[in-house]
Amino acid sequence: MKNYYSKFFNLEINPFGETPDPDFYYASAQHNRAIRDLDGALRQGKGFSLLTGEVGTGKTLLARMVLGLHAPIANTALILFPKFNELELLQAICEEFEIPAPPESHPTAKAYVDHLNRFLLSSLDAGRPSVLVIDEAQALNREALETIRLLTNLETKTRKLLQIILVGQPELNEILDRPDLRQLKQRIGTHASLSGLDRSETDRYIKSRIEQVVKGNFIKFDPASVRAIHELSAGVPRRINQICERILAFAEVSRARLVDASTVREALGIKPKSIFSIFQRGSA
Prior knowledge:
Elements: H1 29-43, E1 48-53, H2 59-70, E2 75-79, H3 86-96, H4 109-125, E3 130-134, H5 142-151, E4 162-168, H6 171-176, H7 182-185, E5 190-194, H8 199-211, E6 220-221, H9 223-233, H10 237-254, E7 258-259, H11 261-268, H12 276-280
Parallel strand pairs: 1-4, 1-5, 2-3, 3-4, 6-7
């Protein structure tokens, strides 16, 4: 017997869950461009790249997909919560690459760097480069960012030993603009960025999420509802998911298969006059 997320809509799983699942990747032009740019930077051996975007625009999913492209041919590591000092950051990097700790009883930062350098050289000699992604990089402190700059110095005569992608919110740009970090910023070879989807992309995004989990016209969002969702979410995928999840729950209880502007309003508990203009615009 199947376990349904929603029997009414014939959904076995939630089409608007927040987990960064590659199966739900929506191939917008900007997301495809970011993947192409970052993938190209790695294949060209560039040492340092940047991916920025507002909260919920899909940065983590995109970073995982880029790592997935290179996992068959490279050592890959992903750090998600980088609130570390210098030593903790180096320890985390080694752990993610599954490098045993240095033999010293109390290894220093230099011991970790030397240990990491030997691993990277050995891997590159074997034809396997190494890629490190640090997510939520806006949380890195000055000490950790300086450590990253030093790691970009690890190289042979012809290429970098470690390719690093920093992923973060827009304030990461402001952090890297600080005069004391200019040397790090100068090393950025590729900078990809993500923003909210436009209205037509929001419409396609909603449809694509539903089509991933159900075949058949069990639920439809009319143009007015899509306009409202786009306005309320600013086209940010995570916000779209949160809004649509609440709409589905409301629509199932009310046994409604067509989502219109009033469904959105009632599902979210919005007073009609508070966003009157959203629901009264033309159908374009």
